[in-house]
Design a protein that fits this description.
Layout: E1 22-27, E2 30-37, H1 41-49, H2 51-57, E3 66-70, E4 77-83, E5 89-100, E6 104-113, E7 116-131, E8 137-149, H3 153-179
Helix pairs in contact: 1-2
Length: 191
């Protein structure tokens, strides 16, 4: 299990007030989501690649996922699961294809509700440092989702809603890390 050194509070003066936004747009049959975080790319990347961090923010809508396995390297496994309010078991399983810290992560995943396969996607997540006209540094993250199977309008809408919720949680989590209010996480999130 990964240990997280999360004392980022000393970097807070370099970053400005929370201004994050999320944009979703279809591009040639794919979905592209862009979000700006008030945090450095290294921290946003770590929040995506460390299971201790991911367990704190990832989960579509009302669902919080339990990280079962996250081996963030090419060929490494990704397994999460959770229980939605309606009582259905949701599972995500996949494989990491490319990992270049702190620039991008590429993974293929499949989403199941109960035993039913809902969709399969190939996702490329990039992290870019951006600076505004006042010199405030932020991270622009882009998720490019290529549907492989079952990504109809219903799945696309729920994918976008789920990611919006997760990214709002990630915003709040990163703010706590940067403020020094969350110094260390030693959760037993990986079972």
């Amino acid at each position: 299990m990964a240990s997280a050194d999360m004392n980022y509070g000393q970097r807070a003066p370099h970053f400005g007030a929370q201004v994050s936004t999320t944009q979703v747009e279809p591009v040639d049959g794919d979905l592209v989501m862009r979000h700006v975080f008030d945090a450095p790319p290294e921290l946003v990347f770590k929040a995506w690649s460390d299971p201790l961090h991911v367990a704190q923010w990832f989960g579509p809508c009302e669902l919080h996922m339990t990280v079962r396995e996250m081996d963030v390297r090419p060929g490494g496994a990704l397994r999460m699961e959770g229980l939605c309010e309606a009582g259905g078991n949701v599972r995500i399983q996949g494989e990491y294809r490319e990992v270049v810290e702190p620039d991008w992560i590429v993974y293929a995943d499949a989403c199941f509700v109960g035993d039913d396969l809902i969709c399969e996607t190939l996702a490329t997540v990039t992290f870019h440092e951006v600076e505004d006209e006042e010199g405030v540094c932020r991270t622009r993250m882009t998720i490019h989702c290529e549907p492989v199977l079952g990504f109809d309008a219903f799945a696309q809408r729920h994918w976008a809603e789920g990611w919006r919720t997760s990214l709002e949680r990630l915003d709040a989590y990163l703010a706590k890390l940067l403020s020094g209010r969350l110094v260390e996480t030693e959760s037993a999130c990986c079972i």
